[in-house]
Amino acid sequence: MQKFAMSTVVLALAAALSGCQDKGPQKEHVSIEKNPYPSTYKPVSSNSVLITNATVLTGTGERLDDADVFIVDGKIQTVGKDLSVQADSTVNAQGKWVTPGIIDVHSHLGAYPSPSVESHQDGNEMISPNTAQVWVEHSVWPQDPGFNRAREGGITTLQILPGSANLFGGRGVTLKNVPAHTMQGMKFPEAPYGLKMACGENPKRVYGSKGVAPYTRMGNMAGYRQAWIEATEYKAAWEQYEAEFKAGLNPTAPERDIKNDTLRGVLDGEILIHNHCYKAEEMAMMIDLSKEFGYHAGTFHHGIEAYKIADLLAENGSCAALWPDWWGFKMEAYDMVQENVAIVDAVKNSCAVVHSDSDTTIQRLNQEAAKVMYTANQSGFNLKEQDAIKWITYNAAKSLGVADKTGSLEAGKQADVVIWDKNPFSVYSKAEEVY
């Protein structure tokens, strides 16, 4: 598909706005606050720590045996063997394993908290196929006991997403998994927002059953396109306003629309797409859609048939966040292979991620990755622990746009670190310490 042409829209808006110039005194500039609910998270002050004699999986594809990790002021200072440094405390991790903190890119904790009662169901705004105006952070309950349980399983970062009933479900938020009284106290500083989208059965079932579009997959696609057309016009109107204000023409600002604020954020490259999508041909269509309107297709979640288009995903720089063995629960989830993650991972420049979408599975995401590794190796793959850890650390951080801050044990990154009592891909392993 050809990229949507904006020139005629911009010209039309320019003509319309030029006739609305106020010749009086310059009006006050109108701007949109892009982050009105900023993070208030602050790392807990801590002494320097030297972890010694561990098997270290860095998250970058390396395994270091009998290695050390030095943490200073909440950041990774050095990783290597026989480090000669002065630390306030030393942890002898002989026989233990050290990994980056585990990251789950698909969670509903806080928005569907425990106990699971109707009054706590705050993740799906099922009033319209397009609810890009809602932000899931406004539903997050920080005291959900699921956060503590996830942390006990090594989870240090997670993305909370709205549900998948709508074509556009709203904004997701990335959180640090720390105790806090408010959502903002957990909010990952400088992490980009996500926009939840959904393909396939869910939107057409939810709205088609009400006699409202979309009723079919082609109705889904029409709904996406119409929304992006409107968002493109909204973006052009604001850009025209900014240009005319800068030129001293005293324009009137366009009417604010928080739904289109979010979609414009995607078009501007500031908000990342996270797309609930199972079937190969639908993921391919969503990539075409992104090219039509000039944004990045982002990460595909669940992706039961991602193995069929692994090369296409890699070519377009799209991550695939997948389950190891959850399939067959509806028609679009049938054509699954248990090597799905491994096949996606095998392609050069790929970004395979293992996710939970579960308040229980998130507690054992290391075991979910282990299932992929062992099953794939039985089928002829040769995956090692240093490969598998990337699916729940570095690649997950890449999907969330925070790989420069966390996801691997590298100097300067946040000290999101887990000490495991044994190989983390053993069903018997436990996260002994979570930093």
Structure description:
With 435 residues, this protein is of the alpha/beta class. The protein folds into two domains: 7-16 and 102-406, Metal-dependent hydrolases (TIM Barrel), CATH 3.20.20.140; 46-100 and 408-435, Urease, subunit C, domain 1, CATH 2.30.40. Helices cover 28% and strands 19% of the residues. The chain has eleven helices and 15 strands. The strands form two sheets. An eight-stranded mixed sheet has the order 6-7-8-9-10-11-12-13, sandwiched between helices. Strand 7 and strand 8 form a beta hairpin. Helix 4 packs across helix 5. The longest helix has 30 residues, at 217-246. It is globular, with a radius of gyration of 23 Å. The N and C termini lie far apart (47 Å).
Strand-helix topology:
Elements: H1 7-18, E1 49-57, E2 63-72, E3 75-80, E4 89-92, E5 97-100, E6 102-107, H2 145-152, E7 155-160, E8 168-176, E9 194-198, H3 201-208, H4 217-246, H5 258-267, E10 272-277, H6 280-293, E11 299-302, H7 310-315, E12 320-322, H8 340-346, E13 352-354, H9 365-378, H10 385-388, H11 394-400, E14 417-420, E15 431-434
Parallel strand pairs: 1-4, 1-5, 6-7, 9-10, 10-11, 11-12, 12-13
Antiparallel strand pairs: 1-2, 2-3, 5-14, 7-8, 8-9, 14-15
Helix pairs in contact: 1-4, 4-5
